Amino acid sequence: MGTEQRALFIIFGGTGDLAKRKLYPSLFNLYRKGFLNENFAVIGTARRPWTDEYFQKVVTDAINSEDALAEDATQFASHFYYQSHNVNDTEHYITLRNLADKLDRKYEIGGNRMFYLAMSPRFFGTIAEHLKSQKIVTTEGYNRVIVEKPFGRDFASATELNDAIGRYFPEKDVFRIDHYLGKEMVQNILAVRFGNNLFRALWNNRYIDNIQITLSEALGVEERAGYYETAGALRDMVQNHILQIVALLTMNMPASYSEEDIRREKIYALKSLKKYTPAQVQANFIRAQYTAANGQRGYREEEKIASDSATETFVAGKLFVDNENFSGVPIYVRTGKRLSQKRSRIDIAFKTMPTNIFAPQPLGQNVLTINIEPEGKIFLQINVKQVGQGFTLKKSHLDFFPTSNGKQVFPEAYEKLFADALAGDATNFTHWEEVAYSWKFVDAIRTAWDQHDYALEEYPCGSMGPVAADKLLARDGHKWFYTGQEH
Ligand SMILES: NC(=O)C1=CN([C@@H]2O[C@H](COP(=O)(O)OP(=O)(O)OC[C@H]3O[C@@H](n4cnc5c(N)ncnc54)[C@H](OP(=O)(O)O)[C@@H]3O)[C@@H](O)[C@H]2O)C=CC1
Ligand SMILES: O=C1O[C@H](COP(=O)(O)O)[C@@H](O)[C@H](O)[C@H]1O
């Protein structure tokens, strides 16, 4: 059982998709694991006029998983209250404060408040300002604000957003969510890198040939057309999730496993990203859009998408982290919607042996694969001798599955991140400087695309992206290890 926490959660965007699909089920898991018990309450707020009873039903429906015990769910949902509230209306914050203070007393919470901003970032500034001016922040407990992505749409807007929040909340109380940092296998990167002397010795440009990161999705744009049209795959996935993975893979060893030391090294890695000129963007980054195939609509035929939309649903690129250990190592990244499979995976390819005493038999490359999802596993490709007479080599795998046979039950990323935020641990949240350096890198690409007539490639639904993404590696003598098939 977890350590019981006291907290009042105020969820802005409490009727939204994220709250229902991720936040309420995650809070329920924390409840069942004992992190939350008697001394907590949740206020969901949004404009629509729901009652507490209706809200509690929405919450129980949201957590209605096979193993959710009905009694637990009802008990849990009884801690939920709804406040109809337009975030632009000052009067409403007064009602919100009164409800918050009442619940704080009723559940003996001690003034700890967790403000979750699960709505469009354009509202974050006004919410932060009102929380302070209307005294919804307390003086006795902690006041933490969890901020959803996207954190801006470029460096300039992210800076404005950060300043708007920073006027009312110090950096230590701002928890910027990147849900990939809550994923079990992403957290495993540091365990593998810094827990094994074997890898410490090899984790550099003397032994690593190239790194490949694939975050592929089978789903299309779904219900989020409005947002996606303003974002595209570069802003939606590369600026945050992919660059966070890059930072974890290339950062120097932190002095300790602590928030401060890890963040320092991640910031340094992101600062070391090589910025591209427009010509380098054209040579190293590919954007593309999905077209109708396999019974699925093309992006431009999706609901609420402009028929001449130039938004990219796929990005592939080659980037470099110019620090001492990784300078010169190409890092190939790709992400896209409507690809052949849902798969989040990292391949680290080591250089081949300088001499091959088994020639003319070829030596396979050692590749360490960290499969993030759907199945969490790590495998290392090695060369071994085939059993029998003679001396024939074959490729084999050393496999690691984080859980024993059977169904893998990893905690949902949001559940882990909620637990961290409750404990005041921001290690797995992004510091402002990480966000800032990521945007600076991404801005150079976006600006080159906006100012030049670089190709927007096409790829059929169900493929692994445009041919250009394969050519990007082929010209360096490489190929994607993940081909879109089960592996
Ligand atoms: N959904 C997802 O899978 C993911 C979402 N995110 C991020 O999370 C945030 C929320 O996303 P999502 O839940 O999908 O969005 P939704 O559009 O589903 O929800 C938006 C919420 O904001 C409320 N709202 C809108 N305007 C106001 C207003 N003026 N005053 C008060 N409430 C308002 C809406 O309720 P009402 O209409 O009743 O006011 C609703 O609860 C976004 O920043 C998104 O980028 C990030 C990763 C994944
Ligand atoms: O942040 C986002 O991530 C999801 C993919 O997350 P995953 O955990 O399912 O891999 C993506 O679909 C969405 O567009 C993006 O905003």
TrEMBL record:
Q: Which UniProt keywords apply?
A: Carbohydrate metabolism, Glucose metabolism, NADP, Oxidoreductase
Q: What class of enzyme is it?
A: oxidoreductase
The record places domain Glucose-6-phosphate dehydrogenase C-terminal at: 190-480
Residue sites binding substrate per the record:
179, 183, 217, 236, 337, 342
Sequence ranges assigned to domain Glucose-6-phosphate dehydrogenase NAD-binding in this UniProt record: 10-188
Please give the biological process terms from Gene Ontology that the record holds.
glucose metabolic process; pentose-phosphate shunt, oxidative branch
Active site positions: 241
* Top-level taxon: Bacteria
Entry-linked Pfam families = G6PD_C (PF02781), G6PD_N (PF00479)
Q: Which residues bind NADP(+)?
A: 13-20, 47, 149
**In the UniProt record, does the keyword Oxidoreductase occur?**
yes
Q: Molecular function (GO) terms listed?
A: glucose-6-phosphate dehydrogenase activity; NADP binding
What the record says about family reads:
Belongs to the glucose-6-phosphate dehydrogenase family.
Please give the function described in this protein's UniProt entry.
Catalyzes the oxidation of glucose 6-phosphate to 6-phosphogluconolactone.
Q: Which PANTHER family match?
A: GLUCOSE-6-PHOSPHATE 1-DEHYDROGENASE (PTHR23429:SF0), GLUCOSE-6-PHOSPHATE 1-DEHYDROGENASE G6PD (PTHR23429)
User: What is the protein's name according to its record?
Assistant: Glucose-6-phosphate 1-dehydrogenase
What's the source species' lineage?
A: Bacteria, Bacillati, Bacillota, Bacilli, Lactobacillales
